[in-house]
Amino acid sequence: MMPAILVLGTFVVLPIIWAVFLSLHKVQLLGGIKYEFIGLRNFTRLVEDERVWIALKNTAEYVAIVVPTQTVLALVLAVTLNSGIRGKNLWRILYFLPTVTSSAVLTLIFMWIYNTNGLLNDVLAFLGLPTYNWLGDPAVALKGIMIMNIWSTAPFYMVIYLAALQDIPQFLYEAAELDGANDWQKFIHITIPILKPVTFFVVAMGIIGTFQLFDQSYIFSNGTGGPNNATLTVVLLIYQAVFRNLQMGYGAAIAFLLAVVIITITLIQRRLFGGEKV
């Protein structure tokens, strides 16, 4: 067990201990590194910082929309591919391509699509629908990131659902057919209950991943979280505190806030889904 213990200790336990230390200190980086103990002042400042609440609101809205949507879409895609359609392997590869593509590359592609003269607005105009300044309008900037991430992450969870679907015993469906169940009834009463542990895993991973949104928001806003803080997320705020303002202690305090939020929501979800049975 020693190799695993060394890895966990080096890359998990020690960083957590160091983050606790930093959150209780004011760190001076210029002119020599100095640590000044300030107790819980970083956490007090965190509560009073308006941008922290804006970042939490944006992140919560992002999680609340992206996680359910990508979960449902992943399940629909998996059920479709598992239904015996022609070219199943080809469709699976095509669906999965966005997942293995660099996040930065995908973001730059979507920035081109979202440009005021880009592909998306051209399509909307062709259909007679209103166009938007996807990159500059605070009302739609975050939604543009949501669309991109739903499209790029749903295929990953689709593969997980597909593997689980192929592991369901076929005799259960055959028995249901003998009892007169239609496809919808089989899906609701057999597929969904059996996939409950997998759904717990998919939702849990989705929540953890979406709460850590950073790179797309950074690239979209050039690191500012704009327009008007519309794409400011908690992790981007941590980045700004540590690497732009050189406030390592304050950044560590925000990171602990994020960790508490993620752990709390995961525990609630575990109780709702019965995750202890996974």
From TrEMBL:
Positions of transmembrane segments: 62-81, 93-114, 140-164, 194-214, 248-268
UniProt KW Ribosomal protein keyword: no
Gene Ontology cellular-component annotations: plasma membrane
Membrane topology: Multi-pass membrane protein
GO biological process, one term: transmembrane transport
Pfam family, one: BPD_transp_1
Entry's family note: Belongs to the binding-protein-dependent transport system permease family.
Protein name: ABC transporter permease
Organism expressing this protein natively: Chlorogloeopsis fritschii PCC 6912
Highest classification ranks of the organism: Bacteria, Bacillati, Cyanobacteriota, Cyanophyceae, Nostocales
